[in-house]
């Protein structure tokens, strides 16, 4: 079997190295600080249905396929580490704060149904039976059973442990040029420095971490997403008694949490789940999503020695399972089993 270098140890690089090592390939992973990029800040929702993006038809099959691959990935990782991943499969509720938000939610649900996705309108009474922490003053609710979650920080730590157990060498250094031999470039926003044909931009997101006091725990048992006066907010209950609240989206080159964004997130979260007001405030951080001009990833082989796997933008935690599986197939010269033509890595190269 060949020896491969994976550059970048965010979730995409870690899971790719895992799939390769598990198959018996010799793997070296290079990252000065694994899981310190977007992965460290991400919410971790595996949400192909709730995150459906209007007119992004090329993205749906990738997201749905990756969601299908997740249970297998989690089961395989668990064979090589005892560490937790925060994987939860209780599903997601999407709620609307007022009547205009309810109209928006109804339109989204129709769009999901038209694309064959499973989303069920719920009477508010039923939504509050499922999640008693929800405000009684909501205007609509939809249940999405297939949208799940992981805790990205825990999952990354579990993958690192699994890689150690599989004998993967981890070099804690910054790659300053492409290594020789078979290489997978999976270093998020850093990929443009090593392969300049890519066009990646940072799309910042503020995200909060709160501690749920014991007397309120569990405040929620599944992901709650909502529309509040046309803004989006989500609340993600973790297995460790914390709650993540996210996330803003801005392209202003300001890599620290913005007071206005933090204020919006807290106010909107409290409107949907009033108990949030009583939680401990633990952390506000900002991460940079690696965005491409068309919001589709760069995933494919560009030469006999180089595979690119980056640009996963808002969906990189969800798309991790697909990225890892498809890269394994590309390395082994097999058909990845899904059409990746929309992800061709050289599609934004400027012609001379
Ligand atoms: C606030 C926020 C919330 C999000 N929520 C979700 C969500 O709920 N669901 C979802 O699916 N996605 C979500 N995302 C998107 C997701 O986080 C990213 O798409 C995903 O983490 C990308 O993973 P990655 O491994 O490609 O990149 P990263 O996690 O950014 O990892 C890149 C790695 O490469 C390393 N690196 C960089 N340059 C070099 C170099 N030259 N040599 C060696 N190593 C290098 C870095 O140290 C880093 O560890 C969110 C993002 C943000 C910011």
TrEMBL record:
<dbReference type="GO" id="GO:0050660">
    <property type="term" value="F:flavin adenine dinucleotide binding"/>
</dbReference>
<keyword id="KW-0560">Oxidoreductase</keyword>
<protein>
    <recommendedName>
        <fullName>glycine oxidase</fullName>
        <ecNumber>1.4.3.19</ecNumber>
    </recommendedName>
</protein>
<dbReference type="GO" id="GO:0043799">
    <property type="term" value="F:glycine oxidase activity"/>
</dbReference>
<comment type="pathway">
    <text>Cofactor biosynthesis; thiamine diphosphate biosynthesis.</text>
</comment>
<dbReference type="GO" id="GO:0009228">
    <property type="term" value="P:thiamine biosynthetic process"/>
</dbReference>
<dbReference type="GO" id="GO:0005737">
    <property type="term" value="C:cytoplasm"/>
</dbReference>
<feature type="domain" description="FAD dependent oxidoreductase">
    <location>
        <begin position="5"/>
        <end position="327"/>
    </location>
</feature>
<dbReference type="Pfam" id="PF01266">
    <property type="entry name" value="DAO"/>
</dbReference>
<dbReference type="InterPro" id="IPR012727">
    <property type="entry name" value="Gly_oxidase_ThiO"/>
</dbReference>
<dbReference type="InterPro" id="IPR006076">
    <property type="entry name" value="FAD-dep_OxRdtase"/>
</dbReference>
<dbReference type="InterPro" id="IPR036188">
    <property type="entry name" value="FAD/NAD-bd_sf"/>
</dbReference>
<dbReference type="GO" id="GO:0009229">
    <property type="term" value="P:thiamine diphosphate biosynthetic process"/>
</dbReference>
<keyword id="KW-0784">Thiamine biosynthesis</keyword>
């Amino acid at each position: 079997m060949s020896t491969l270098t994976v550059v970048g140890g965010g979730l995409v690089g870690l899971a790719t190295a895992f799939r390769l090592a598990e198959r018996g390939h010799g793997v070296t992973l290079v990252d000065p600080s694994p899981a310190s990029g977007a992965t460290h800040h991400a919410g971790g929702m595996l949400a192909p249905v709730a995150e459906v993006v209007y007119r992004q038809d090329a993205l749906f099959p990738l997201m749905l396929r990756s969601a299908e691959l997740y249970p297998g990935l989690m089961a395989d990782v668990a064979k090589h580490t005892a560490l937790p991943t925060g994987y939860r499969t209780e599903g997601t509720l999407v709620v609307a704060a007022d009547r205009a938000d309810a109209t928006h939610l109804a339109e989204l649900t129709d769009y999901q149904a038209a694309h064959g996705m499973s989303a069920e309108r719920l009477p508010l009474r039923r939504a509050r039976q499922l999640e008693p922490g929800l405000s009684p003053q909501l205007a609509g609710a939809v249940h999405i059973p297939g949208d799940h979650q992981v805790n990205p920080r825990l999952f990354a730590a579990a993958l690192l442990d699994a890689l150690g157990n599989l004998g993967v060498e981890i070099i804690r250094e910054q790659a300053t040029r492409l290594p020789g031999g078979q290489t997978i470039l999976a270093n998020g926003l850093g990929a443009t420095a090593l392969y300049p044909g890519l066009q990646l931009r940072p799309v910042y997101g503020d995200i909060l971490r709160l501690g749920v006091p014991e007397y309120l725990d569990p405040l929620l048992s599944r992901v709650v997403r909502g529309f509040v006066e046309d803004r989006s907010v989500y609340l993600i209950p973790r297995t460790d008694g914390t709650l993540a609240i996210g996330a803003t989206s801005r392209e202003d080159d300001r890599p620290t949490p913005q007071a206005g964004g933090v204020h919006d997130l807290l106010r909107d979260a409290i409107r949907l789940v009033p108990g949030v007001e009583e939680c401990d405030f633990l952390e506000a951080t900002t991460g940079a999503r690696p965005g491409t001009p068309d919001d589709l990833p760069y995933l494919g082989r560009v030469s006999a020695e180089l595979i690119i796997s980056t640009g996963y933008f808002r969906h990189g935690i969800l798309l991790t399972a697909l990225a890892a599986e498809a890269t394994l197939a590309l390395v082994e010269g097999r058909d990845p089993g899904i059409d990746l033509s929309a992800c061709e890595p050289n599609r934004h190269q400027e012609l001379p």
